[in-house]
Design a protein that fits this description.
358 residues; alpha+beta; Immunoglobulin-like; 12 strands; disordered N terminus; binds copper (II) ion
Length: 358
């Protein structure tokens, strides 16, 4: 946006100098579609970098996909330049001067042989990438994570070394340089699991288990999202991926496997009482307490998460009160009812309790 206003400014300066700049779009004379195109172009450039970009890969599989993209982009540019050059030539050339046989060869060569060769080469290159992202049966991997697509959040299970399964939600942490095998399922509609910086997207189809291998190459926080329209709040179905050093990852997973902390402050204790007596426990599990509901996310260590409600709100006590009091205003269509009736004091007690569940 800043670039756009600089452009406008320089145009108006040029106008004041009395130069003939009529051909350049100006703030007043530009057609609206042209201005919109410019804005969209500038804004879309900002999508090339950052934590949710395929052009800024942070994993082996994503690097392959990015290189496929650049080959296709470069090749496409060359062909485009060739076609434009030919079109320019056709405009210049005088009719009737060239031989029909030669132009026939041009049509067969450029219209049949050339595209067939280019497309075959691209297909072979594309297929050669597949084995690295699709694991074989029984392949050895460093960690196994199963992720189920819910409406509209992610149920995540880690398989620990001693065979335990640890449940959490909307967050995936991975050790750098290790291969992770994802087993992707759904019990409702079709979702699609996608971490652009780490690899390609894979659908989550009811009744099937799809598998995906990812191997991150650097630490950092990346964005994941559902890439298949799955209902009203599809756009709010996101998650964070944190790639960390092996030791930090081991500590984190060990902490996640523990039962919930017992609240220590009076406010947090009151929060736990409110939680247990208002039906929250019928939908949410907090390991180590009587709460064992399955409908919603496991909240045992919800306070340690990076975000709330599948990437919709930042992790903060205010987010808890805001979410619990206004679920359906924040995420239309969610199963969890709005608990505005509890009143601010009880909502704050709940927030104190849930924040303490680190
Ligand atoms: Cu979705």
């Amino acid at each position: 946006m800043a670039n756009f206003s600089v452009l406008q400014l320089s145009i108006s300066v040029n106008r004041q100098k009395g130069r003939n700049m009529d051909w350049i779009p100006t703030a007043r004379s530009t057609h609206l579609p042209l201005r919109i195109c410019l804005i969209v172009l500038l804004l879309s450039l900002s999508g090339c970098a950052g934590s949710q970009s395929i052009l800024d890969p942070a994993g082996i599989q994503a690097e392959r996909i990015a290189s496929l993209f650049w080959w296709m982009f470069g090749g496409g540019m060359l062909i485009w330049i060739g076609v434009v050059a030919l079109a320019g030539y056709v405009i210049k050339v005088r009719p009737g001067k060239h031989q029909p046989v030669k132009s026939q060869w041009l049509i067969i060569g450029g219209g049949v042989v050339f595209p067939a060769l280019v497309l075959t080469a691209l297909l072979i290159f594309g297929l050669s990438i597949m084995p690295e992202t699709r694991p074989g049966e029984g392949e050895r991997t460093d960690i196994r994570i199963s992720v189920a697509g819910e409406q509209w959040w992610w149920r995540v299970h880690y398989q620990t070394d001693n065979g335990e399964s640890v449940e959490l939600a909307n967050e995936i942490r991975l050790p750098v340089g290790r291969t992770a095998l994802f087993e992707l399922t759904s019990t409702n509609v079709i979702h699609s699991f996608w971490i652009p910086a780490l690899g390609g997207k894979v659908d989550m189809i009811p009744g099937r288990t799809n598998r995906l291998l990812l191997e991150p190459t650097r630490t950092g926080t990346f964005q994941g999202a559902c890439a298949e329209y799955c209902g009203t709040s599809h756009a709010f179905m996101r998650f964070r991926v944190q790639v960390m050093e092996q030791q930090a990852f081991d500590q984190w997973l060990a902490a996640q496997a523990q039962p919930a902390h017992t609240p220590t402050t009076p406010e947090a204790r009151e929060g736990r009482r409110v939680f247990m007596s208002n039906g929250c426990a019928s939908c949410h599990t907090i390991r180590g307490t009587a709460a064992d509901g399955q409908r919603g996310p496991d909240l045992t260590h919800v306070g340690s998460r990076l975000s709330l409600a599948a990437g919709t709100l930042p992790m903060a006590p205010e987010s808890f009160t805001h979410w619990i009091g206004h679920t359906r205003d924040i995420k239309p269509g969610v199963v969890m009812p709005r608990f505005e009736v509890l009143g601010q004091e009880k909502l704050e007690a709940l927030a104190a309790y849930l924040t303490s569940l680190e």
